[in-house]
Every structure is written in structure tokens, then in C-alpha cells.
Request: fold
Amino acid sequence: MAIDHGASAVGLVSEMPSGPGPIPENLISEIAAVIPPGIGSFLLTCKQDAAAIVAQQRRVRVNTIQICDRLEPGSHKELRHALPGISLLQVIHVTGPEAVDEAISLAPSVDAILLDSGNQSLAVKELGGTGRTHDWKLSRQIRELVPIPIFLAGGLTGENIREAITQVRPFGVDACSGLRTDGRLDERKLTSFFKSIAAAI
Reply:
């Protein structure tokens, strides 16, 4: 349904400490295998160990790893070496101005950055799917300072996506909870979302 409405990538959420949409790895593998050529298959992972991420990618066979938590220094280099041809997308949770410095420091190590509204400092980490927006002025600043593609996420819906794109001008956008009803992808919300995107670009 998402691809039919215009999605250029499908996010497949593996085990997370919180948030909607996680599915078992065997189902991620099945879905990734039938995503058409030209459509990104993004594995959302909360793993922080490079070896564990490599093993996960080899089990599910996606073409992009969306790293939802911080990694130890040097881990991105390990991933590059172990997974040639697999794109690395690092999530940065924009909780304040420190996100700008984090984005600048990580940019040389990854193919793209995704700006989200989680919080890694909570007892139960929020690594996505919060339904909250963050300060788009900081996202715009990051987009202007970082020389790699920037994706915007966090509380995006058909009602606010046009303003978000106008303010931030990201390379792409990522939505989850804002397109669901009772935990399932809602075609009406999906249609509204893509219509609003078309009006903004």
C-alpha cells in the first residue's frame, strides 16, 4: 500500500525498547525479499554493537541499515567494511542544540542522517515512533550544515508535513505513528500525507 501511494522506501522495524510497529526478523526478511527494485528496504535497528548489526543484516537482507541509537566510536567504519554496498542511515534524536554538533561529527561516517524526536536518556529508551515533532529550526540548521542527505521524522502527518518540508527542506521524510490507526497503516492518512507532500514540493 505504501509503495502504491508513492513511498520510495519501506521501513522494517526490528525489536525496539518502545514504539509501534516492530515485527519479527523472519517477516522482515520475507518483506525485504519482495520489495521491488528501486525501492529502499530499511532495517530499523536498536542494536549498538557492529557485529550484531552485521549479523542482523545478513539474516534479513535489506539494502539500508537505519541505526536508531548511538554506536561506539569506530562502529560505522566496521559496518562499512563488513557490509559493502549497504547504505548506513544514522538517526539523531533532536532533543536540543547538541544535536547539531552530533550531526556534524557523524556525517563523514554515514550515507545519510535521519532527524527524529526520540529520547535515548529515558529509563526505557524512545528510539522512534513517538508521534512528537521536534524543533524544526534545529533540523533546518543541521540540513544547512551537513553535506549529506537529511531525512526528517517525528510526528509527521498529512496535516503538518507541508509545513515541515517548507521549513526544513529535507532530502526525504519518514512517517510511522502519524499514518496509523489502531496500530495499522491507514490508507486514508497515507493518501492525505502524499497529497500534502506533492503540494509542498
